Here is the input.
Amino acid sequence: MKEHPLIAITMGDPAGVGPEVVVKALHNPRVQSAALLLVIGNRKVLERAANILNMDLDLETIKTTADIDRTRKQAYLLEQPPHPLEDFPIGCIDAICGQAAANYILSAVDLASHGEVDAIATAPINKAALQAADIPYRGHTELLADKTQTEDVAMMLVTPGRTEPAQWLRVTHATTHIPLVEVAPTLTIESILRTVSITVDGLGQLGLATPRLALAALNPHASDDGLMGDEEAHILAPTVEAAQQLGFNLEGPIPADTIFLRAIQGEFDAVIALYHDQGHIPIKTHGFERAVNITLGLPIIRTSVDHGTAFDIAWKGIAQEDSLVEAILLAAQMAIK
Here is the structure.
């Protein structure tokens, strides 16, 4: 078990809020005590963000992870890419920024895949900027899956909510970035079972060895015995039965208008949502500021902020770092299991 895991933090799209939230997170006492930190990004951009925030930037630049002294609580910087970024447009889609953001991720994946860092926590990137740079991925998840040669991955969102003590809500998505009209045809017993299995493994890394899971219904009122669709009878109920036969503690399908409240109240450890907004809306309503995105199924540990580049508020010094703080803390927790 690693007492102080080494977490690589990618800077995200330079034109967005990534540099600001990274600098702020580096100053968080909980982060400093939980892990050793390696930022992958650009020093001049981070210094510019630190100046706006009126904060110090105590980062020691290294060339390789062999330069890291694990006995010191020092934060480090690995510059990637090496070319300067002085002239990028703030708060705009830009190909240079998209390429830089992709390079940070690729570097982090390489380090994690070779065991040089224990986990990755990523700041936000912009999908349009990736496309402008001819990066052939819709986002982090697709890039990470491809570069680690992982066929089955799942997006889990988690948040402790806005109150203390924490009321955790954890949601894994059976589908993610596809049009709503394609959701029902995409769902199969086999695909949902894979999501259930990946979720159970991921929750184990979070200390939940025998999690209680719930499967959300697709149709209103779980179709009311077929009055509003047949997916519950033909796909979802058989999935639950199959999962139980495999030893998973899964209930459902449960109407989506009640399942998330029941999870927040402690009845379930995680919910399997069937499409993007079905899972994202309750997470962001319950505690958007502290929500974290975890990519399950990878051979490496990756957490991320659950917000975008926020171009409208970028470089104004007002972006909140709470989501990145939680992402780093969760990455550290998963790395020491």
Summary: Residues 1-150+301-337 form a domain with the Isopropylmalate Dehydrogenase fold (CATH 3.40.718.10). DSSP finds twelve helices and twelve strands in the chain. The CA atoms of residues 186 and 277 lie 16 Å apart.
